[in-house]
Design brief:
Bound molecules: guanosine-5'-diphosphate
Largest sheet: 8 strands, mixed
Oligomer: single chain
Number of strands: 10
Number of helices: 16
Mean pLDDT: 81
Strand order of the largest sheet: 5-4-6-3-7-8-9-10
Radius of gyration: 32 Å
Low-confidence stretches: 70-135
Strand content: 5-15%
Length: 420
């Protein structure tokens, strides 16, 4: 599932890591060692000074102390000399250079907030002390990642990720990475992976209804919970309704299905066949009957029989068909479903997202079920659809059997595409 999306992200992580060459890594590690050694030397010198000071206050030792201090100073100055500019001119030059670097970073990250670690953390303090100015890190600049992120954006678009989603991922990753200080290649890989994880979680987390809780809540009021399923023909809508019904049956509920797709030849027989398979009551009229009347009868049946849940099938129609959309609105006026769930086929990528948008505009969608995720390598619809219409994916269809449905959790998807 979503293999191609996973490949794209791991490619990006690899390419960004490659910006930090093995030679740079080696140098950084060497410098790190030097820094540690220098720090130890200074510590030793300080320790010696304080011990000597306590031991003896005699003039002979004072002389010795002075000697030790002068040794320390000379050692410190040696350390400073290693990295400090030698004269005022070069000092000015360096300052100018660093300001220019900061400016170019600011220019190219305009509108992007710097991460907390930028210039304010431990490293900055160390640098301010003037003692540890070895180049122990590289700072990620927009130049290091812009081209790679642009490539990622194109790859995501090719993989049917919606434009606004691809743009947001790239923007968020850039915001996260630029200004980060890195010591070794594995840091870059980790930072990039984390940045992608954050970006994707932000996109996938959308507040929405909890089906089971809502059904239980409705049950307490004595009124059945009514779900209207909408979506285009062939996406797997009847199979999905049957999967949901089957899940509730297995948990001890007694759902009723309303065969309100009275438009398509064979639709009533098809859903009746599923209902029979899973042992659920179906309310059906003749082909061509008023879909709202079928839904009304199903709700009346549920009320009379104290059944907790009514699942209303609707004719799978193109989102552009105004008359048929009006019929759906009539079902809404007559039975007032608690929620409308859009069923979309993950394999249709951008089409599924566009359909969801149209259905949401026309009848208002509260949640999404994406079918055929088991066969979907691209993952574009799964990544985009909830964000685009700001409604959560509730379930994924993962096969043709009644049990082949899983609740959708953003964390799970993040792991699928960025897990080890
Ligand atoms: P409808 O016209 O929208 O009601 O679509 P159907 O429910 O009849 O499903 C169309 C086809 O998609 C059928 O062959 C289903 O078995 C298949 N299908 C539905 N959901 C899934 C799914 O999650 N995974 C796979 N692989 N096939 C599915």
């Amino acid at each position: 599932m979503f293999e191609s999306l996973k490949k794209k992200f791991s490619g990006t992580i690899g390419k960004i890591s490659d910006q930090f060459s093995p030679e740079e890594e080696e140098k950084a590690l060497e410098d790190e060692k030097k820094e540690k050694k220098a720090s130890n030397e200074i510590k030793d010198a300080e320790d010696k000074t304080s011990v000597k000071g306590k031991e003896d206050k005699s003039s002979e030792d004072e002389t010795h102390l002075k000697k030790t201090e002068s040794e320390k100073k000379s050692r410190l100055s040696f350390l400073r000399r290693k990295s400090e500019p030698k004269d005022e001119d070069s000092l000015k030059k360096d300052e100018k250079g660093s300001k220019q670097h900061e400016k170019s970073l600011d220019d190219s990250t305009e509108g992007i907030e710097k991460p907390d670690n930028d210039q304010t953390g431990e490293n900055a303090e160390e640098e301010a002390s003037g003692l540890f100015t070895f180049a122990t890190h590289k700072t990620i600049s927009p130049k290091d990642i812009d081209d790679i992120l642009f490539e990622l954006e194109l790859a995501l678009l090719e993989g049917d990720v919606a434009l606004e989603v691809a743009e947001q991922i790239v923007k968020s990753v850039k915001q996260d990475l630029v200004g980060r200080k890195i010591k070794r290649r594995s840091d870059v890989a980790k930072f990039t992976k984390d940045a992608l994880k954050n970006a994707i979680s932000d996109i996938l987390i959308v507040e929405g209804p909890d089906l089971k809780k809502s059904v239980n809540k409705a049950q307490k009021t004595g009124e059945p919970y009514k779900i209207m399923f909408v979506g285009v023909n062939g996406t797997g809508k009847t199979t999905t309704i049957s999967k949901i019904a089957d899940q509730f049956v297995k948990e001890g509920y007694t759902p009723v299905i309303a065969a309100s797709d009275t438009f398509r030849a064979g639709a009533i027989e098809q859903i009746s066949h599923h209902a029979e398979n899973i042992g659920v009551k179906i309310i059906r009229h003749q082909k061509g009957a008023d879909p709202a009347a079928v839904a009304y009868d199903a709700v009346e049946h549920a009320r009379a029989q104290k059944k907790e849940l009514v699942l209303i099938d609707t004719a799978g129609r193109m989102q552009t068909n105004v008359n048929l959309m009006d019929e759906m609105k009539k079902i809404q006026r007559v039975v007032k479903p608690d929620i409308a769930i859009f069923v979309g086929d993950a394999l249709t990528g951008n089409d599924a997202v566009e359909q969801a948008r149209k259905f949401d505009d026309a009848v208002g969608v509260d949640g999404i079920i994406l079918t055929k995720a088991d066969a979907d390598a691209k993952g574009g619809a799964a990544l985009s659809i909830g964000h685009v219409i700001n409604k959560p994916i509730l379930y994924l269809g993962v096969g043709q059997g009644y049990g082949d449905i899983m609740e959708f959790h953003p964390d799970w998807m993040v792991e699928q595409v960025l897990g080890d």
